Amino acid sequence: MGYIKKNIFDLKYKISKSEIQYNRPKNSVLLMAVSKTQSLENIIEAFNAGQRDFGENYIQESIEKISKLKKLDIIWHYIGKIQSNKSKIIANNYDWVHSVDKISTLKKINNYRCDSKNKINICIQVNIDYEDSKSGIAPEEVEDFINDTIELDKINIRGLMAIPMHQAERGKQYQTFMKIKNLFDELVNKGYKLDTLSIGMSSDYEAAIAAGSSIVRIGTAIFGERKK
Fold first, then answer.
1. Cα–Cα distance between 137 and 75 in angstroms, integer?
2. How many domains does the chain have?
3. Which of the chain's termini has less CB crowding within 10 Å, N or C?
4. Would the pLDDT of 228 be above 60?
5. Is 228 within the bounds of a domain?
6. Do the Cβ atoms of 113 and 86 come closer than 8 Å?
7. pLDDT of residue 212
8. Residue 60 lies in a domain
9. pLDDT tens digit string along 37-76?
10. Which helix (H) or strand (E) is 122 found in, with range?
């Protein structure tokens, strides 16, 4: 068994155990393989191991992959920083976008989305720790942001995404994740039809699952350390 296949099997087993441990429904946590800088061969190996959802950060690199792997039943997630002039490419090549934090960009994505395609799934990026170095909107701005998307007919606001401040200690990871989970729950309780919380990466996904993550974004734990 190749190491990528083994890593995926191990991760899915750990995710299943976490679902049981934290009283989450079975199969309620989706594994997204973060495949930025990975070769086509590595992505195909992961696909052959049953992986279907892949996350990419870099437009030019990922568009080449999407084109060459279009015969595979892959669900492509864009998780990188969005440049406004790339909105058309993003609109028509991805199934999900997790890093939206500007309504102007979202309007462009909506306008460029082909009529022949399904609505594009959107997660709003939230700067949960108010870090100057990270993208995302402030938690208190999220509700107004969602309300500004009501007339956009080719997008589907699915939920929230966050990249919290790095914390080595699991308890602190959990506390931070609960801040965005509480925001998510407040919005749902107000009637917003959200179903996705995209939180958790290789170093903190177990704490994220405990807090309520529905998509964990895993790169290193699947493909190994990226080459510099």
1. 26
2. 1
3. C
4. no
5. no
6. no
7. 97
8. yes
9. 999 999 999 999 999 999 999 999 999 999 999 999 999 9
10. strand 120-125
